[in-house]
Automatic annotation (TrEMBL):
Family named by the database record: Belongs to the VPS16 family.
Residues covered by the Vps16 N-terminal domain: 5-407
A Pfam cross-reference name: Vps16_C
Functional note: Plays a role in vesicle-mediated protein trafficking to lysosomal compartments including the endocytic membrane transport and autophagic pathways. Believed to act as a core component of the putative HOPS and CORVET endosomal tethering complexes.
Organism whose genome encodes this protein: Maylandia zebra (zebra mbuna)
One Gene Ontology term, aspect cellular component: CORVET complex
Subunit record text: Core component of at least two putative endosomal tethering complexes, the homotypic fusion and vacuole protein sorting (HOPS) complex and the class C core vacuole/endosome tethering (CORVET) complex. Their common core is composed of the class C Vps proteins VPS11, VPS16, VPS18 and VPS33A, which in HOPS further associates with VPS39 and VPS41 and in CORVET with VPS8 and TGFBRAP1. Interacts with RAB5C. Interacts with STX17, MON1B. Associates with adapter protein complex 3 (AP-3) and clathrin:AP-3 complexes.
Protein name, as recorded: Vacuolar protein sorting-associated protein 16 homolog
Record-linked InterPro entries: VPS16, Vps16_C, Vps16_C_sf, Vps16_N
Molecular-function GO terms, alphabetical: actin binding
Subcellular location: Late endosome membrane; Lysosome membrane
Signal peptide (residue range): none
Protein's membrane topology: Peripheral membrane protein
C-alpha cells in the first residue's frame, strides 16, 4: 500500500501527513485577506467578518457563517461597533467582541441571542486584543485594554469578571500572550520584550523558562497546545522554545527530550508565514509545506486544520498503529494480516504463508486489533474498507475473539463518514468523536437542523427513544412552529403526523414554544394532541384562555382542576389550597363550618404525622368534626382506626412486632405469621372480623409455617365457615398431599370429586361422581385418567351410559 505513505513526511522518528478534507464550496473573491476568521474546534463552523474596522455607514462589513466545508449557513451586514475578535462557544454560539468591551452572542444561523459587557472601565479604555478560550467552567473571554490591564471571564454563562493586576513596565498591549487553564484555575501568560509574566487574581509574577536567555531576543509569539499541556515561544531572533507544562500555575517547565521517541506521540510546533508552513519537531528537524493563499490554522486535539480560500486540510502526526501497518517493510502483525488479505483476494498461496507467520508469533488477535484501530484513524473510505476486511478475514481464524470492538468501529465509521460529507460538513476524526461523545454529535446534528440524518443515526445505533429519536423530534417540532411561511393548520398536521405518540415528546412543550413565538392559535391546536389534561390547563391559563382551560379541566374528570379554574370564587381558592396551601385550606373549612370536609382534612393530615400521639390527636379531632356533621359511619370507622393504632403500639412495645401503621388485615396476617394467635384472635373478636376472612388468614398462615398439627386442631375447633375443600387446596399448594387427604372426607358431597382429584385419588373421585350420578363430574374424572386406569375408565363409561338411558 505504498500510495498511502506517499504523503507522509518524516520528522525524527515520527511521520506527519496532510489529509484533504474539503474543496471549499464558498466563493471568496478576496480570499481570507483583511478578514477576521474564527473556526470552532471539532470540525465546527467558520465565522468570517470582512474588513472589521470599516466604519462607513454606507458600506458595512458583512458577517458570514459557513459550515466546515464552506457551505453558507448565514450572512448579514454588521451594524454594531468595530469588532476586535470572533470566537465560538462550546455549544457553537458565535461571540463577537467589540472595541468597547461589549460581547454580542449569535446562534449558528445568525440570530441574535443576547449581549453583555466586560466592565465599565473597558468602555473608557477600549479593547486592544481579546481571546476566546475553553475551560472546565465553559467558554471564557480574556481581554487586554489600551491601559494595559487584563480582564477575565472564565464562564460567559455565569459571568464573573476578574480584573487582573498591573504588569510592571508594560505600555499598551503585550507583544504576545496566552490564557492557561488547568485544574479549574485560569491565568494569563504574557511577554514584554524578553520578559515573561504570569498573572493571577492577586499577583503578577516574573517567570524564567530554563534554556531561554535574554540574549535569545524578545518573545514575539507564543502558543499553548489544545490540551494546555505544552507551550511554545518564538523570539525575534528566530529561536523556538518548547516545554511541557508540569504545573502551569507555578509555571514549572521541563524541556522536551530530543530524539527520544516513546510509545506516546511527541508534540510539534506549526509555524506559518505568507508562503510557508513549517512543522518543527523536538529533534531539530522540520517539514516544509508551501502555501499559495492566506490560511487560517485551527488547533484540534489530534492535529491542525489548515483552512484556505480553496480547500481545507488536516495536518497531523500519523497514529502509531497506522505507521506500524503501512510503513515500508513493516513486519507488524497488522501489516502482515493486511498483506495476507490482499493475497487472499488474488487467490494466492502467499496468504497462507503470511497467516502462518502471524500464528507462529501468536499475534493474530493483535493483528486484528491493529487493523480495526487503524481503520478508525483513516479518513479515506477505501482504506477503511481494506483494513476492516483484513480484520474480518483474520477474525475467522480466531475462536475466542470478542467482536465488540470490530462491530463498534464499523458502526462508528459509518456515522463518521456520513457526517464528514460536504453536505453536512463535520470533519471529525475518530479520536475527536470519542472525546466529543455520540450524544454531543447528535446534539450538533440537531442544532444544525440535520434532523433526518440525526434520526437515522439514532436508529442505526439503537439509541433509546427518549435519548435519541424523541429528542430529535422535539427539537424539530420546536423549530417547525417558528416557520412563518406555513399556516397554523399545516404546521399542526405536520407535527402530529411526524411526532405521533413518540415517547418522551410533550405536545404541551411544543405548544409553549409556539406561544412564545406569538402563535397562540397554533399552540391551542397543538394542545388538542396532548393526552394529559394536567399539561394542557396550565398553559391555557397562561395564555389567558380561562374558558377553554375550564372546559378541558371538566372534560378530564379531575375535580381539583375544575375547582381551580372557576374564576376568583371560593371554589378556586379551595382548589388552590388543596394543591399547595394545606393550612389555608383548614382555615377555609373552619370559616365555612364545613365539618365533613374539615374532618376529612384531619384524617388526611394524620397520615402525614409520624408521631403516634400527634396522629391520635388529629384522628380525635376528625371524630369530633364527624359528630358535628352527624356522620355516624365515619365516627365508628375513625374510632376503630384509633383503637387499632393503640393496639399496635402496645404489641410493638411488648413484642417488637413492627405493626404500627398497618391495616387490620395485614396486622392479623403478621400476628399469625409470628405465632401470636391469641392476639390475632383478640383482634378478630374486637373488630368483628368476618369468620370467613379470619379462617382463611389462619389457614394460610398455619400451612405456610407447616404447623400441621395446629392446623388439624383448628379444623376441629368448630365447623369451618369456608368449608374443607379450602384445607385440601391449601395443603396441596404447600406440597403436602398427606395432610390434604385428612380433610377429603369432610368435604361436602358437591365438592368431593374436586377434592379427590386434588389429591390424585382417581378411584375416590370416580366413586363420588358415580354416586352423585353427575355427568359433568364423570367427564372431569375421565379427562384426568390415563391408559393405565382402564378399570376406572370402564366403570365411568358404564355409569355415563346408564345415566344417558334414563
Amino acid at each position: 500500500m505504498a500510495f498511502i505513505t506517499a504523503s507522509w513526511n518524516p520528522l525524527g522518528d515520527a511521520f506527519y501527513r496532510s489529509t484533504d478534507l474539503y474543496e471549499m464550496s464558498w466563493s471568496l473573491r478576496d480570499g481570507l485577506r483583511d478578514s477576521l476568521v474564527a473556526a470552532a474546534p471539532y470540525g465546527g463552523p467558520i465565522a468570517l467578518l470582512r474588513e472589521p474596522q470599516r466604519r462607513s455607514p454606507s458600506s458595512r462589513p458583512q458577517l458570514e457563517i459557513y459550515s466546515a466545508s464552506g457551505g453558507t449557513v448565514a450572512s448579514f451586514p454588521w451594524k454594531s461597533g468595530p469588532v476586535v475578535q470572533l470566537g465560538w462557544t462550546v455549544s457553537d454560539e458565535l461571540l463577537c467582541i467589540q472595541e468597547d468591551g461589549t460581547v454580542l452572542i449569535y446562534d449558528l444561523f445568525g440570530s441574535f441571542k443576547r449581549h453583555f459587557s466586560m466592565g465599565q472601565e473597558v468602555v473608557q479604555s477600549q479593547v486592544m486584543e481579546a481571546k476566546v478560550f475553553h475551560s472546565p467552567y465553559g467558554t471564557g473571554i480574556a481581554i487586554v485594554t489600551s491601559s494595559s490591564r487584563f480582564t477575565l471571564a472564565t464562564n460567559i454563562d455565569d459571568l464573573k469578571l476578574r480584573r487582573l493586576p498591573e504588569v510592571p513596565g508594560l505600555q499598551g498591549k503585550p507583544s504576545c500572550w496566552v490564557v492557561l487553564t488547568q485544574d479549574r484555575q485560569t491565568k494569563v501568560l504574557l511577554s514584554n520584550g524578553p520578559e515573561l509574566f504570569i498573572l493571577d487574581n492577586t499577583s503578577c509574577t516574573v517567570v524564567c523558562p530554563p534554556g531561554l536567555s535574554p540574549q535569545d531576543g524578545n518573545i514575539v509569539h507564543m502558543s499553548v497546545s489544545f490540551s494546555y499541556k505544552y507551550l511554545a515561544l518564538l523570539t525575534d531572533s528566530g529561536h523556538l522554545w518548547t516545554a511541557l507544562l508540569l504545573h502551569p500555575f507555578n509555571l514549572e517547565f521541563t524541556c522536551l527530550p530530543r530524539c527520544r521517541r516513546p510509545k506516546s506521540q511527541q508534540p510539534s510546533v506549526v509555524l506559518m508565514w505568507d508562503r510557508l508552513l513549517l512543522v518543527v519537531g523536538v529533534c531539530n528537524e522540520t517539514i516544509q509545506y508551501p502555501i499559495e493563499d492566506p490560511c487560517v490554522l485551527v488547533g484540534e486535539m489530534d492535529g491542525v486544520r489548515i483552512i484556505s480560500s480553496s480547500n481545507q486540510e488536516l495536518l497531523q502526526e500519523v497514529p502509531l498503529v497506522c505507521q506500524d501497518i503501512f510503513k515500508i517493510a513493516s513486519m507488524a502483525p497488522g501489516a502482515l494480516l493486511l498483506e495476507a488479505h490482499r493475497e487472499y483476494e488474488k487467490s494466492s498461496q502467499k496468504a497462507d504463508e503470511y497467516l502462518r507467520e502471524i500464528k507462529e508469533q501468536s499475534m493474530l488477535g493483535e493483528a486484528v486489533r491493529q487493523c480495526v484501530e487503524a481503520a478508525g484513524h483513516e479518513y479515506d473510505t477505501n482504506t477503511q474498507k481494506s483494513l476492516m476486511r483484513a480484520a474480518s478475514f483474520g477474525k475467522c481464524f480466531l475462536t475466542d475473539f470478542s467482536p465488540d470492538q470490530f462491530v463498534t468501529t464499523c458502526r462508528e465509521l459509518r456515522v463518521l463518514n456520513a457526517v464528514r460529507d460536504s453536505s453536512v460538513g463535520l470533519p471529525l476524526t475518530h479520536t475527536q468523536f470519542k472525546q466529543l461523545t455520540l450524544q454531543v454529535l447528535i446534539d450538533r446534528l440537531v442544532y444544525r437542523q440535520f434532523y433526518p440524518l440525526a434520526i437515522e443515526v439514532c436508529r442505526y445505533l439503537k439509541i433509546p427513544d427518549y435519548q435519541g429519536v424523541s429528542r430529535v423530534l422535539k427539537h424539530w417540532a420546536s423549530c417547525k412552529v417558528q416557520q412563518k411561511d406555513l399556516t397554523d393548520d399545516a404546521i399542526a398536521r405536520a407535527v402530529c403526523m411526524k411526532v405521533g405518540d413518540s415517547p418522551g415528546v410533550s405536545y404541551s412543550d411544543i405548544a409553549a414554544k409556539a406561544y412564545e413565538c406569538g402563535r397562540a392559535e397554533l399552540a391551542i391546536k397543538l394542545l388538542d394532541f396532548e393526552a394529559r389534561s394536567g399539561e394542557q390547563v396550565p398553559l391555557l391559563l397562561k395564555m389567558k384562555r380561562s374558558q377553554l382551560a375550564l372546559s378541558k379541566a371538566v372534560e378530564s374528570g379531575d375535580t381539583d382542576l375544575g375547582e381551580c379554574f372557576t374564576g376568583r370564587s371560593q371554589p378556586l381558592q379551595t382548589g388552590f389550597c388543596k394543591l399547595q396551601e394545606q393550612e389555608t385550606l383548614k382555615d377555609l373549612y373552619n370559616q365555612d363550618d364545613d365539618h365533613q370536609e374539615l374532618a376529612n382534612y384531619y384524617v388526611t393530615a394524620s397520615y402525614r404525622e409520624k408521631r403516634l400521639e400527634g396522629r391520635l390527636s388529629l384522628l380525635q379531632s376528625a371524630v369530633d368534626e364527624y359528630n358535628k356533621a352527624k356522620n355516624e359511619f365515619a365516627v365508628k370507622t375513625t374510632e376503630d382506626e384509633m383503637r387499632l393504632l393503640r393496639f399496635q403500639r402496645k404489641l410493638d412495645d411488648e413484642k417488637g412486632a413492627g405493626l404500627l401503621g398497618l391495616s387490620l388485615q395485614v396486622t392479623m396476617e403478621t400476628l399469625l405469621s409470628l405465632g401470636l394467635h391469641k392476639q390475632a384472635e383478640q383482634l378478630y373478636k374486637d373488630f368483628r372480623v368476618p369468620d370467613k376472612r379470619y379462617w382463611w388468614l389462619k389457614l394460610k398462615s398455619l400451612a405456610e409455617k407447616e404447623e400441621w398439627d395446629e392446623l388439624e386442631k383448628f379444623s376441629k375447633s368448630k365447623k369451618s365457615p369456608i368449608g374443607y375443600l379450602a384445607f385440601v387446596e391449601v395443603c396441596i399448594k404447600c406440597n403436602n398431599k398427606y395432610e390434604a387427604k385428612k380433610y377429603v372426607s369432610k368435604v361436602t358431597p358437591e365438592q368431593k370429586v374436586k377434592a379427590h382429584l386434588a389429591v390424585g385419588d382417581l378411584e375416590g373421585a370416580a366413586d363420588a361422581a358415580i354416586e352423585r350420578r353427575n355427568e359433568a363430574e364423570i367427564g372431569a374424572v375421565l379427562s384426568r385418567c390415563s391408559a393405565s386406569n382402564s378399570l376406572v375408565i370402564e366403570r365411568l363409561n358404564r355409569a355415563r351410559a346408564a345415566i344417558a338411558k334414563k
